[in-house]
Design goal:
The complex is a heterodimer of chains A (809) and B (523).
Chain A (H helix, E strand, L loop, with lengths): L4 E5 L7 H15 L1 H4 L8 H16 L21 H4 L3 H20 L37 H12 L34 H33 L13 E5 L10 E3 L6 E3 L10 E3 L4 E4 L20 E3 L9 H5 L3 H10 L1 H7 L16 H6 L5 E6 L2 E6 L8 E8 L7 E8 L6 E7 L4 E6 L7 E6 L8 E5 L8 E6 L3 E6 L6 E8 L18 E8 L11 E7 L4 E6 L10 E5 L18 E4 L10 H42 L13 H24 L5 H6 L8 H47 L5 H45 L4 H7 L1
Parallel strand pairs in A: 1-2
Antiparallel strand pairs in A: 2-3, 3-4, 5-6, 6-7, 8-9, 9-10, 10-11, 11-12, 12-13, 13-14, 14-15, 15-16, 16-17, 17-18, 18-19, 19-20, 20-21, 21-22, 22-23
Helix pairs in contact in A: 1-6, 15-16
Chain B lengths: L1 H5 L8 H11 L3 H10 L8 E3 L19 E3 L19 E3 L19 E3 L19 E3 L9 H5 L8 E3 L11 H8 L5 E2 L2 E2 L2 H10 L1 H33 L9 H8 L2 H6 L5 H72 L3 H86 L8 H6 L3 H76 L1
Parallel strand pairs in B: 1-2, 2-3, 3-4, 4-5, 5-6, 6-7
Antiparallel strand pairs in B: 7-8
Helix pairs in contact in B: 5-6, 8-13, 10-11, 11-13
């Protein structure tokens, strides 16, 4: 019988808490790893042996002492809250109850393994398992549902392989309905017998081959198969059980916290359950696990199948079928926890652990230190948090040829947030072929770039995103001697261009820095059908044989024909017997026409066609040359990008985005300055006077008195000055007004109405100003003494002039 | 200028003149030498310039079938003629001539640029055929009526117009008027019309333009309606049941039936006639609907058939193409092998092999073709049977419906006869209450007369029904035969064409090979 410890995820709990609870459990798990780490069958046997040793030793010693000490180096105990270090009376009580329960249990079931009830926590204080759970709601929507939550937990804890990201493509098969007038297939005149014989022979050969293959495979499998597990059924492991009922969970299932995968309760790999717990109660499985977990009934309310430790905290399950509103009752349970539990027996004390907190950084980082390595059979997966690697690398899958992981077969590297849109880099070590995959948005519209070396004129395939390029290029293949380009959607209907090169000729003493392009031997161009032209005038393929000065044309095939027109031009510059240059002779153009036309027989037509082709040939050559240049350019760009590997940062990423950070900091600075200014408004009235004295020294009494007097007199002077200023302005204004009035009275008769209006408006404004000044003067007179007194008061209380106070005190 | 020309002798557009012009304007330099060597056919000429030649009469141009551009400016032409064959003409320049009326352009549907500058034209007319007209130059003429502009509204592509130097261009409103009435115009008298002017013009003439537009729209709608009706009728005709979706047949029965019309005034006959008409029309509508349905069925049948045949032919062609491609690949490589070979016996052997290949290809292609012919024949026969059956069924059903019509007619006839005789009796007895029209009363002289009259009406009706039935049956039968004939003929044509094509290709290949043989031997 295997020892298995089980923790129950209770579905009756408030729905929201579910995810949180698991996160909480995860944390507990992390802290207690040394206790729990006996897990999974896949770990190495050596380790397992050691674990077993440990476990066996544990079993023999008494329960309280069985748990190994916690490795303290990782956690600073002093910073933990009190609840971690001590037990409340209630918890002590609970521990006693648990001990009692355990004793009864070992008495009743002596052959079963001891219970996992109260392991030591990081402060070496025994804590009951249920109290290590604390339902917590996290602010991340990802943690709300079990699958993504489990994934996160598994990432956060240990390295967990994701399921194969490559999904099989869905094949759509369209069934063709036979039509009424579908012609009968042609009569089959072949011998059935011969065919059958042939098929039989083929089948035999195939069977032979298959058999060989199978044998080979079997041999390999045999070699690779792990040795039968000596500890089968003895390993312990903790995992999560999710009970059906709430949040549309249709049936019970397990979640393995280390991988984040869910398993059916019928899964053969789960051999049995010893006990279950959640944050409310603890149950012991009383059912026989001879057939793994397949026959277990997860009805926790059934005391015959599940022996509970605490009575009444959770009735659930059994009543589920009887009471429809049990869910509501249970929620009430949670809310009125304290009240109701008093009525019943002993209830579970509150959890002693702190609420789990996952910072956004940690959440984004996911794995410890942002890096995680998962070892598979013949493969290794490494994962990094985004932005952790400066080149944007987020995961790398290395596959090996052998089990020992020494011979690398291929490496796949995934990138994120790259400025050059690189998404995946695939390196095949056997063929040495590197393939880069890009997301849309590369400046050169690259989609795929596969190459063996970054040197030009080597084997390489560059694919481009459709529609992204002006010239409609979608693919360019290169070998040492050829270059093939595929086009789509061009107005000239070009679909394919293939160029053959000759090795470079050595140019002697050519000092020019100009490039020495390889001589082109042959250019083949193919075109799509141009619907605007008749088929016999629409060129399907043209071949420029540059070396032989020959041009071959093949035209498109008409819809109802099976042969296509062809034409071949031979360009010879010869002179006839009279010494005249031969311009065009019938033998320079050999043509086959499906439907012979009159005008094409004319030499003039042929001559013009040839001239046109000559021009086209020049253009094509130029195009090829430009393509070569472009390849160079792309390679250069790629090298630069690889060297720079800049990462893009979303404008919403406030942490990483430099610009927004600067802006935010600037804003903060402004705020800070604003604050400073506000502080400054409360001016230091003593500062100018203190500055006269040597700094840092304590004031003597005499100095203090003098300082005070100076300050006060200065203030007085300032008040007087201000009063004088207001007074003088007032007088000036009044005088002006008087002058104006005088002027008005003198010139009243001659004034135009406009001038009069001007004068009147001036008067009213002047009167307003005078009134204001008068008011200000009055108020100043009233306030000045008060201000003076206030300053005096302040100076008395100023700590710097403490000497004064002493005297007066 | 014209006066200057007048003083000279007018010239005739004869062959020599044209040849000279073509030669001068043809290709130059090397190509020109070639052209001279070979001679240029008039029908290959795309552009011809015949200016300042004192031509009085356009003539001898019928050979220039493919001419795109013709310049006949600065002559003394008085009448536009002889251009009927130049249907591809895009550009026609007749400026600086003595033309008085626009005519003879009705076949030049592709014309885009027409210049009639400096002539004696007083009315814009006869340009309806030039639907693609973009540039029209009518400056220095004698157009004096603004309403000529309205005529130009029908040219939807017209962008450039010149009318300066005409009496109308003197008018104060000239520019505004044209801008308003031809809103799509871009250049007027060689100047671009700015948007501001357009707006102003539109505002100024809005009322009249709106009215004009309204009229045009009405016209358009009417035309469309007519076209829709026509199409509907066509559809019915293809179903052979036109005019059966109403009382047309019934009305036609009474259209030539004077006695019947007279008799309808008898007491009780009008009700009888009403009921008869209703029933008759119902049967007609039945025939009509049945006809449409059958037409649909026949169409589907035909479509499936042609689709299948098309597919079969396509597949066969693909196979053929594939065979040829395979052959060509092999052929090319063996040809190059032959060229590299130096031993004569070897060469001969290889050439023999090649020709064997060619004949093998021929056999393969011909076999494919024969296969297809057999397959198609079978399918066509099947289709023929089916379509004939369908037509037969249709005719049968229509005939039975027509028989119902006849029954109705007979029934009606009996009733009518009854009423007539009873009326006659009443008249004889003299206790007829109602007043009868005089011509009707004239029929009631004795029993024979009235029976004859009713009989005549009956005969006419039956004749009409029979005629309609006969028409339907003959038409559908002839359609059926024509269709089947056409399918057979098409298939034969296709077969002939393919065989010819294959032969041609094989001949070409063989002759190529033969040439090679000779040249090798010569070498």
């Amino acid at each position: 019988m295997e020892v298995l410890r089980e923790k129950v995820e209770e579905e009756e709990e408030a729905e929201r808490e579910e995810a949180a609870e698991r996160a909480e459990w995860a944390r507990t798990e992390k802290m207690m790893r040394p206790v729990e780490v006996r897990k999974e069958e896949t770990t190495l046997t050596q380790e397992m042996l050691r674990d077993l040793e440990k476990k066996l030793s544990e079993i023999q010693i008494p329960i309280s002492a069985e748990l190994p000490a916690f490795t303290k180096d990782t956690i600073d105990i002093s910073k933990l809250p009190v609840s971690y270090k001590t037990n409340t009376p209630k918890e002590e009580h609970l521990l006693q109850v648990a001990d009692n329960f355990s004793r009864q249990y070992s008495h009743l079931c002596p052959d079963r393994v001891h219970l996992f009830l109260h392991p030591l926590n990081e402060c070496e204080v025994p804590k009951f398992v249920s109290t290590t759970l604390r339902p917590t709601l996290m602010p991340y929507p990802e943690l709300y549902n079990w699958d993504s939550c489990a994934q996160f937990v598994s990432d956060f804890l240990t390295m967990v392989p994701l399921p194969d990201p490559l999904k099989p493509t869905v094949q759509k098969e369209e069934k063709v309905l036979p039509k009424k007038y579908t012609i009968r297939p042609p009569r089959d005149l072949c011998s059935r017998f011969e065919q059958e014989q042939e098929v039989k022979k083929q089948q035999e050969i195939r069977a032979q081959e298959k058999k060989q293959l199978r044998e080979e495979e079997e041999r390999l499998m045999e070699a690779e198969k792990a040795k039968p597990d000596a500890l089968h059924g003895l390993r312990v492991h903790s995992w999560v059980l999710v009970l059906s009922g709430k949040r549309e969970v249709p049936e019970n299932f397990f979640i393995d916290a280390f991988t984040g995968h869910s398993y059916s309760t019928q899964d053969e790999r789960f051999l049995g359950i010893e006990s279950l717990w959640n944050h409310k109660n603890y149950w012991i499985n009383m059912q026989d696990c001879w057939n793994c977990c397949k026959d277990l009934i997860f009805d926790l309310g059934d005391p015959v199948r599940w022996e509970y430790m605490l009575l009444g905290t959770d009735k659930s399950q059994l009543s589920l079928t009887e009471e429809d509103d049990s869910g509501i009752n249970d929620e009430d349970d949670v809310e009125n926890l304290g009240k109701e539990d008093e009525d019943k027996s002993f209830d579970m004390p509150h959890s002693w652990v702190e609420q789990i907190e996952i910072s956004p950084e940690a959440f984004e980082t996911r794995c410890p230190n942002g890096k995680k390595v998962i070892q598979y059979k013949r493969a290794k997966l490494e994962k990094w948090a985004p932005y952790l690697n400066s080149n944007g690398l987020v995961s790398r899958l290395t596959t090996y040829e052998d089990l020992e992981c020494t011979n690398i077969l291929e490496i796949k590297e995934w990138y994120q947030n790259r400025e050059d849109m690189l998404e995946l880099k695939h390196i095949n070590k056997t063929t040495d072929l590197k393939t880069d995959y890009f997301k849309p948005g590369h400046p050169q519209a690259l989609r795929v770039h596969s190459y063996k070396s970054m040197q030009p004129e080597m084997d390489r395939v560059i694919e481009f995103y459709e529609m992204a390029r002006v010239d409609g290029l979608i693919k360019r293949e290169e070998t040492a001697r050829t270059m093939t380009e595929y086009y789509q959607g061009r107005p000239d209907f070009l679909s394919y261009r293939h160029a053959n090169f000759r090795p470079r000729v050595k140019k002697l003493a050519l000092s020019s820095a100009e490039s020495n392009p390889r001589p082109i031997v042959k250019i083949t161009e193919q075109f799509f059908r141009n619907p605007a032209k008749p088929a016999e005038e629409d060129v399907a393929e043209r071949v420029f044989l540059l070396a032989e000065e020959r041009i071959q044309l093949r035209y498109h095939c008409r819809d109802d024909h099976i042969t296509a027109s062809k034409r071949e031009f031979l360009r010879r510059t010869e002179v006839d017997s009279k010494g005249n240059k031969i311009i065009m002779t019938p033998d320079m153009c050999i043509s086959f026409e499906v439907e012979p036309m009159e005008h094409t027989k004319k030499l003039l037509y042929q001559y013009e066609a040839m001239m046109h082709l000559k021009r086209e040939e020049k253009l094509s050559r130029h195009q090829v040359w430009e393509s070569e240049l472009e390849v160079l350019e792309i390679l250069k760009l790629r090298e630069e990008e690889e060297a720079a590997h800049t990462l893009t940062i979303s404008i919403y990423d406030t942490k990483r985005n430099e610009k927004s950070k600067e802006y935010r900091e600037a804003m903060e600075r402004v705020m800070h300055e604003e604050h400073l200014r506000q502080v400054e408004t409360q001016l230091d009235y003593l500062a100018p006077f203190l500055a006269q004295l040597p700094p840092g020294e304590k004031l003597t009494r005499w100095q203090a008195v003098r300082l005070k007097d100076e300050c006060l007199s200065d203030f007085k002077q300032r008040l007087i000055n201000k009063a004088n200023l207001i007074q003088s302005r007032f007088e000036k204004e009044t005088q002006e007004l008087q002058k104006k009035q005088q002027w008005y009275q003198e010139n009243q008769v001659t004034l135009t109405p406009e001038d009069e209006d001007l004068y009147l408006s001036y008067c009213s404004q002047a009167m307003f100003r005078i009134r204001i000044l008068e008011q200000r003067l009055n108020r100043h007179k009233e306030l000045a003494p008060l201000k003076y007194l206030a300053l005096e008061e302040k100076l008395y209380k100023d700590p710097r002039l403490g000497e004064l106070q002493k005297i007066f005190a | 200028m014209n006066r200057l020309c007048d003083s000279m002798e007018p010239k005739v557009m004869d062959d020599d003149m044209l040849k000279l012009a073509v030669g001068e304007q043809g290709p130059q330099e090397e190509a020109g030498q070639l052209a001279k060597q070979e001679g240029i056919l008039f029908k290959d000429v795309l552009s011809l310039q015949l200016d300042f030649r004192n031509i009085l009469r356009i003539d001898n141009l019928w050979q220039f079938e493919n001419l795109r551009k013709l310049q006949l400016d600065n002559n003394i032409i008085e009448k536009i003629e002889g251009l009927e064959n130049l249907t591809h003409l895009v550009w026609l320049d007749l400026s600086f001539n003595n033309i008085e009326t626009i005519e003879g352009l009705d076949t030049l549907v592709n014309l885009e640029d027409l210049s009639l500058f400096n002539n004696r034209i007083s009315k814009i007319d006869s340009l309806d055929a030039l639907v693609k007209l973009q540039v029209l130059s009518l400056g220095n003429n004698q157009i004096d009526n603004m309403m000529n502009i309205v005529y130009l509204r029908r040219f939807k592509c017209l962008r450039t117009l010149s009318l300066s130097g005409n009496p109308i261009s003197e008018a104060e409103d000239y520019k505004m008027f044209i801008c308003a009435y031809l809103p799509d115009l871009v250049y007027l008298d060689f100047r671009r019309i700015d948007d501001h002017t357009k707006e102003l013009a539109e505002a100024k003439h809005q009322y009249s333009i709106d009215e004009l537009k309204h009229r045009e729209n009405l016209m358009q709608v009417r035309l469309q309606d007519e076209r829709a009706q026509q199409e509907e009728l066509e559809k019915h005709k293809t179903a052979f049941v036109e005019h059966l979706n109403g009382s047309f047949l019934f009305d036609s029965m009474y259209a030539e039936d004077s006695e019947g019309n007279k008799l309808s005034y008898l007491p009780g006959v009008s009700e009888l006639l009403e009921a008869y008409k209703d029933k008759f029309v119902i049967i007609c509508v039945n025939i009509f609907e049945y006809g449409l349905k059958q037409q649909e069925k026949r169409k589907i049948e035909l479509d499936t058939f042609s689709e299948c045949v098309h597919e079969a032919i396509q597949e066969n062609q693909e196979q053929g193409k594939c065979k040829i491609a395979q052959f060509e690949e092999k052929h090319l490589s063996s040809l190059s092998a032959i060229q590299e070979e130096s031993e004569l016996p070897n060469i001969e052997k290889m050439i023999l092999e090649c020709s064997a290949d060619v004949s093998e290809l021929f056999n393969k292609l011909m076999m494919l073709e024969m296969q297809l012919v057999e397959q198609l024949e079978e399918t066509i026969n099947m289709f023929e049977r089916n379509i004939v059956d369908m037509v037969g069924l249709f005719i049968e059903n229509v005939q039975s419906l027509m028989a119902q019509c006849r029954d109705l007619e007979n029934h009606h006839h009996e009733k009518l006869l009854e009423i007539s005789i009873s009326t006659l009796e009443k008249i004889v007895k003299g206790d007829l209450d109602e007043d009868l029209p005089d011509d009707l009363r004239a029929l009631f002289v004795d029993k024979d007369t009235i029976v004859n009259a009713v009989g005549a009406s009956h005969d006419i009706h039956l004749l009409k029904i029979d005629n309609r039935e006969d028409e339907l049956v003959t038409r559908i039968n002839s359609w059926c035969t024509r269709l089947v004939d056409k399918i057979h003929k098409d298939e034969i044509m296709r077969n002939r064409k393919r065989v010819k094509e294959i032969n041609q290709y094989i001949d070409h290949m063989q002759s190529e090979l033969d040439n090679l043989e000779y040249s090798d031997i010569l070498d």
